[in-house]
Amino acid sequence: MERLVRDIFRSGGYVFATGAREIAARAGHRRPALLASNENPFPPSPRAISAAGEALATVNRYPDETGRELIAALERCHGRYRFVTGVGMDGVIETVIRTLVSPGDRVAVLEPTFSFYGLAARAQGAVVERIARESDFSVDPGRVVRAAGDAKLTFLCSPNNPTGNATPPAIVREIAEGLDGMLFLDNAYVEFSGIDYRPLLECPNIILGRTFSKAYALAGLRIGYAFVPGWFEPYYRRAETPFTLNAVSSAAAAAALADDEHRERTVSHIRSWRERMMDACPFPVFPSDANFFLVDVAPMTGEEAVAALAQQGVIVRSCTSFPGLGNHFIRVSIGDAWENELFLAEVTRL
Question: Would you give the distance in Å from CA 261 to the centre of its chain?
C-alpha cells in the first residue's frame, strides 16, 4: 500500500537536531548543555504554570473555538490588531498556506532559512521559488521583488533562522509594497531584537507570525499566533483546523503575556550572553538579533564540529540541512550560564 503515499513524502522531511544528544549520551553525559534548538533555557512564568494547571480541570470539554481568552490577552499586550492562532508557528504557516495556495501556485522563500516554509508549501502542491540572500545574508529588496514575480506568497524570516540577522523594517516595507502576493514575515525571535515590525501592518499584504516558544518559554505547549490584515482573518478562520489550540495552551499563553517582568528578565539574559559568547568564540561569527548565533567552523564541517562538541557534553546544531547554506556552519543557542560557559570552554578546544 506504500504506493499510495505522495511522492513528496517518500523521502526528506524536516531535520531534527537529535543525533548530537545520542553522541553525548554514549559519552556518558547525563546533563549536556542543550544549545541546539533555540529554546528558552528557563521555565515559563509561574503565572503561566498556574493558569495551565487550572485549565487542566476543564479538558473534558472542547476549548473555546474562537480562542477568545488568548485573543483578548494579545490585544491587551499589543493593541487592537487582528490576530489568529495556531499549533506553534508551524501551524500558523500551514494554515496561511492552506488559505492562499492552490496546487501549482508559486511560493517564494528567501534562503538560507527555516526549511519548513518550503516543506509546507510543497505539501500543499505549490511550486517553491528559492531566492538566495546576499553573501552577508542581507536582503536586496529590488532583487527579491523581481525574483518573487507573481508568487502567491513570499516567506521572509527576521531575525532569520539560522543566520540570526534581522532585516530592517524599511526593507521589509519596500518588499511588501513591490509584491503582488502576500508577505509572511516570521518574527519568531523578534523579542530578542528590539525591533518593532508592527507599523508594517499598514500594508494590506503583510502577515506577522510569532510564537510563545522562545521568549515566553512555552515550546512544549506549541502556541503560535499572527497579526493579520482584517480582510484576511475570516478566510484563515475557515481554513484552520477546528479547535486549533487546546485549553491548557491558551490559558498558559494568556497568563504569560501578562508577566512582563519574567519575559524581560529572560530577554536581558539572552542579549547579555549573546554578546559575550559571540565576542569570546574563537571561530568567525555572524551578527545576530536572535537567541542564537551562526558560527563558521571551517575547515571542519558542521557535522564534525557538532560531533566533537557532543563528545564533551555540548549539544549544538549543524546547519548542513538548511537550504542555501554551506556545510561548515553550526548554530548555537543561548542557554543558562553554565551551558554557555561550557560551550565557550569546549569550542575553544576545537
Answer: 23
Separation between Cα atoms, residue 233 and residue 239, nearest integer Å:
10
Q: Would you state the CATH architecture of domain 46-257? A: 3-Layer(aba) Sandwich (3.40)
Q: Contact at 8 Å (CB) between 199 and 170?
A: no
Q: How far is CA 58 from CA 61, 204, 221, 264, 339, in A?
A: 6, 38, 16, 31, 38
Task: Please write the tens of the pLDDT for every residue from 172-214.
Answer: 999 999 999 999 999 999 999 999 999 999 999 999 999 999 9
Task: Tell me the CATH number for domain 2-43+260-349.
Answer: 3.90.1150.10
Q: What is the pLDDT of residue 9?
A: 76
Q: How many CA atoms lie within 13 A of 244 on its CB side?
A: 25
The cell numbers describing 261, all together, are: 517582568
Nearest residue to 14 (alpha-carbon basis) of 114, 139, 127? 114
- pLDDT tens digits, 259-309: 999 999 999 999 999 999 999 999 999 999 999 999 999 999 999 999 999
Angle between helices 19-26 and 302-311 (to 10 degrees): 30
Separation between Cα atoms, residue 324 and residue 309, nearest integer Å: 24
In this structure, what C-alpha cell is assigned to residue 283?
Answer: 571561530
What's the full length of the chain, in residues? 350
At position 200, the amino acid (one-letter code) is: L
By 3-state DSSP, what share of the chain in percent is helix, strand and coil, each rounded to 5? 40, 15, 40
- Cβ atoms within 10 Å, residue 348: 11
From the CB of residue 26, how many other CB atoms can be counted at a distance below 10 Å? Answer: 10
Tell me the HSE value of 232 on the side-chain side, using a 13 A CA sphere: 25
The model's pTM is 0.94
| Domain ranges, ordered by start, for the chain | 2-43+260-349, 46-257
Over residues 210-223, mean pLDDT: 98
